[in-house]
Write a structure and sequence with these properties.
The protein is α+β, with helices and mostly antiparallel strands. It has two domains: 67 residues, no CATH class; 151 residues, Domain of unknown function DUF1214, C-terminal domain (Jelly Rolls, Sandwich). The protein has seven helices and eleven strands.
């Protein structure tokens, strides 16, 4: 590959340089300290649409928007309290929506809640839920993202207390045109889990090196400690605490068996089974 500016490719003079943008460093600590400062900056680069015109007007009335400087720390104490209560209520509302806006299948949450701005069509609760569940996801035709924090019986997944398995029956691996994966995250931070074999997911390209059961089924071992040398190829290391699992099915098949349409498909993700 050869990368070059378009002007060089066209043998034309280069255009003038774009103006320098003073980006705020997007650190977790900084965003928690003053989220609205980041929102002010970000909104400069997000064109207004007919769907967000009303909510932007509401934000502008309290000093939030492009070119504005909303300072949470300068608010009177009672206003800070109201803002914090409102933020907590909003977060609780998002969690409740996530718990009810997905169809539970064998403990996995299966839905189609990701897409572009037109897909959300001004549904801010759905958009917030999608952002909290997983930013930058594809729409259903491109990928499906079953996720879970519970085993098949509905009990919370906890690597500090239990060992688990996920078994795909013979001929029932995720039906995709591209590839699939199961990724392990820490249940609290939603970050990847540090482990001795540097394995953070199991996916379809790894199948040749994995061991199938005698009946042709495939079992994944989900636990914090190695299941033993003979099973380590199928081991998905878990945290010493709560677990958040995400299955990614890229370019899901539409013919049966299929996970589509979301929540009504003929292929069902196998439940996470507690074995100890």
């Amino acid at each position: 590959y050869k990368a070059q500016p378009l002007s060089a490719f066209l043998k034309q003079p280069a255009p003038p340089a774009a103006p320098t943008i003073e980006f705020l460093p997007a650190t977790t600590a900084g965003i928690k300290k003053n989220f609205f400062e980041y929102l002010d900056v970000a909104l400069q680069f997000v064109p207004e649409t007919s769907r967000d015109k009303d909510i932007r007007a509401k934000l502008a009335r309290i000093g939030i928007g492009p070119g504005k400087t909303f300072e949470f720390k300068d608010l009177p104490l009672e206003h800070k309290a109201e803002m914090l209560v409102g933020m907590k209520q909003g977060d609780d509302k998002i969690d409740k929506w996530l718990a009810t806006g997905n169809k539970p299948i064998n403990g996995w949450n299966v839905s189609s809640l990701l897409g572009d701005e037109a897909f959300f069509n001004g549904d801010w609760l759905m958009r917030s839920g999608a952002a909290k569940a997983g930013l930058y996801g594809n729409d259903a035709a491109e990928a499906m993202y079953p996720f879970t924090r519970t085993d098949a019986s509905g009990k919370p997944l906890d690597g500090s207390k239990h060992k688990y398995t996920i078994t795909f029956p013979p001929g029932q691996l995720p039906p995709v045109h591209s590839f699939w994966s199961v990724t392990m995250y820490d249940g609290k931070s939603q970050f990847l889990v540090k482990n001795p074999i540097n394995r953070y997911l199991i996916n379809s390209p790894m199948l040749p090196g994995m061991k199938k059961n005698e009946d042709g089924s495939l079992t994944l071992y989900v636990q914090k400690d190695s299941p033993g040398a003979d099973k380590e190829a199928n081991w998905l290391p878990a945290p010493d605490g709560t677990i958040y699992l995400v299955m990614r099915l890229y370019w899901p098949k539409t013919e049966a068996p299929s996970i589509l349409p979301a929540g009504k498909g003929t292929w069902l993700p196998p439940g996470v089974k507690r074995v100890s």
